[in-house]
Amino acid sequence: MVREALPRRYPAGTPKSVLAQIKHELDLIGRLDYAPYFLTVNTIVQYARSLGIVCQGRGSAANSAVCYVLAVTAIDPVRSGLLFERFVSAERNEPPDIDVDFESDRREEVIQWIYRRYGRSHAALCATVMRYQPRGALREVGKVLGLADDLTAQMAKHLGSVLDDPDLLQARAQEINLDLRDRRLALTLHLARQLIGFPRQLGTHPGGFVLTRDRLDELVPVQPTAMEDRQIITWDKDDIDVLRFMKVDILGLGMLGCLRRCFELLDDRFGIRMDIAAIPPEDARTYAMISRADTLGTFQIESRAQMSMLPRLKPKTFYDLVVQVAIVRPGPIQGDMVHPYLRRREGLEDPDCPSPALEAILGKTLGVPLFQEQAMQVAIHCAGFTPGEADQLRRSMATFKFTGLPPPGFLRHSIST
After folding, report:
1. Under DSSP, is residue 385 helix (H, G, I), strand (E, B) or coil?
2. DSSP 8-class letter at 277
3. pTM of the predicted model over 0.70
């Protein structure tokens, strides 16, 4: 299937680097027995496109050349220098996770087709477990203990956020004239603290579909949802990940519907037939509009933070837009990477890459590491990590401030280098 699809992506011939990457990916996919997952996702995507539904894979799946060749994603990971191990890694020993966005107003067509194709005895959405939060816990306990509605509302509003701070709790209670020595009030607070985090009810995952070979109801409890013609399993996505069930994310994105309607208008009004792949990649007038921060209603760059950064960064290419979206995030901001990048982009500071290896990795971002893939590549080329170990490093970097623990192999590589 991949071989047959290659000419569509590379009509002038497939580069050797792409062939090598595809071989590497297919070897790993075969070794880990993930082929059924890729085939299933491809089947769903191709069905949606056969109905004219605009859809697009996103997330770490964009690091896969196989996904790109099969048209599940639209970014060439080899040309962009993306690492497949960010998506699938033998060391991580986790099933792949391909998120596919569909037009929001037509996603239900895809969902119902999945039910028809695989059968309701083999397909269901994941549940989400909604848990008690402080304010909700106070309301529920107050209701059970017979407190007046206005009293529980006052407690939830003023005391819900300070249940774990005795001094602040006492001060807030005095402000609203509550005596916490009252037996029922003290009991309400005590029970509410115990209830926080306890499961309250099940909801429906936005799009996590579980598909099984055996009957689903022989593996996990299944129940209907409030929405007609849908059913969910009573476990959430974390349970599914642990049990290694096949899960396909069928998500909705309103902007894809907007794009489809734009294409239809172009065809109706001007006779211009266009799709996502045919959009001119580097239109000067579009980038001039973006550089003026005239982006209200433009997906990904319409927030106040993005609009304030656009006149400073002045994107001129698609890669500039990639940087623009990435730089307005907590990681680069907290890591003090934004201002060095802007100074270097404006020519006020020279890029600093101490070695040719780092130049190859960080050159496009002027010596400033902005992407997780860059951190992985630095670990591979400068510290001797394997791609799988580099992915573990990436994941550990995200949790280090919570755990304080280095990733596996970090100390060994630190000592050896």
Report:
1. coil
2. G
3. yes
